[in-house]
Amino acid sequence: MPRKNTGPRLEWRQDRNVFEIVWFERGRRRRQSTGTSDAEEAREYYQGFLAQKPADNRPSHPDARYIGDVLACYLDEKGPDMTIKGLRTLKGALKPLIDWWGDKPAGIVNERACRLYVKTRATKTTAAPRCELAYLRAALNYDWRMGRLLQKIPVWVPALNKPKDRFLTRSEAARLLWASRKGLSREYLSLFVLLGLYTGGRKTALLTLKWGQVDFKNNLIYLKSDSGAENKKHATIPITRRLRTFLLLARKRGTPFGPVIHDNQAAIGDIKGSFKAACKRAGLEHVTPHTLRHTAASWMVQAGVPVFDVARYLGHTSSAMVERTYGHMAPNHLHKAAAALDHRKKQ
Asked: What predicted TM-score, i.e. pTM, was given to this entire model?
């Protein structure tokens, strides 16, 4: 992490027996020798150096202020007031920003440069670079408010991806289950589909699920998060009546602490190939293992389950994402709100 620009200072260089002027520029440490070991002569040299260098508190033109310094100042000054989660997120976003923008002047920031940054990040979604560019915008705005930049610099940020609406209907789910048991299907595939539909778990969480996490006595499944993100936690899922029947059958074929989904007691690395083949047999398009999770959430919202409860079921600490993605599926969406405005109090 580059350090912010600090004022030059005089330091003694022991290995060279000389005084040096040290400062940070573009997030990197800079040195300049005074050429003397005499303290008085070094101070005179230092004063001459400062006279030639612009004052640090003078606003800089965007072409003279490096983004690495902007980001370092933002982290140094705003970081202490952040939560542990917020600071961790900020540091994670700053790393790719500094790699790309660190040695570039702030004046280079425009829509074209931001679009190129998003393209070179080559992530599967725009979520990560969007978050990073939002932090870049915040840092540049903060630098301008603090009087370090002469002008405010606009930062282009990509729009949020529209939530995918693809989910399985009841009949499509039945076709997928049928296809997962036919032909050359793996024995474990149908159980994976059932678990996906009835727990809403992510693929990795289901493939790493072990029998020790299945509590038949209390009728619960303890799903572990497959991500280190703070907004994703372990989910405790009630076992539905139908799923319980299939789990009890599968339990007889497993080992006490082995994986629930297995191939001759061996853990499954991925299920993409067999799942894709089953979808093809069922005549389903644009369906992935994650569609099962999307389907579980959609069915719950359509049945009138409160968004907060759906979020807890899926293992989210916030209902914001669920509201944004599935809120429009709720029955009589906004009708209750309209009815409240139309309601008249009895006299």
From this structure: 0.54
Q: What is the Cα gyration radius of the chain?
A: 29
Tell me: the pLDDT tens digits for 222-262?
987 654 444 445 788 899 998 999 999 988 887 878 899 98
**Fold adopted by 170-329:** hpI Integrase; Chain A (1.10.443)
* Residue pointed to by tokens 């280079």: 108
What residues contact 336, with CB distance under 8 A and at least 6 apart?
Answer: none
Write phi, then psi, for 72 (nearest 5 degrees).
-65, -40
Q: Are 322 and 307 in contact (CB under 8 A)?
A: yes
d(CA 102, CA 66): 7
Host H or E run for residue 263: strand 262-263
Which SS3 state, helix, strand or coil, does residue 254 take?
coil
Distance CA 180, CA 273 (A): 12
pLDDT tens sequence across 163-204: 567 889 999 999 999 999 886 557 789 999 999 999 999 999
Query: Both tokens of residue 324?
Result: 């944004």
CB 130 within 8 A of CB 121: no
| Contact criterion met (CB below 8 Å) for 103 and 26 | yes
* Residue pair 35/45 in contact by the 8 Å Cβ criterion: yes
List, as own/partner pairs, every contact residues 249-252 make where C-beta atoms lie below 8 angstroms and the sequence separation is at least 24, other chains included: 250/191, 251/211, 251/214, 251/216
Query: Locate tokens 């299920």: which residue?
Result: 271
Please give the DSSP secondary-structure letter assigned to residue 215: E
- pLDDT tens for residues 203-219? 999 999 999 999 999 99
Identity of residue 158: P
Q: Which pair of structure tokens corresponds to residue 162? A: 């529209």
Give burial (CB, 10 Å; 0-12/13-18/19+) of 179.
buried
Answer whether 331's CB lies under 8 Å from 340's CB: no
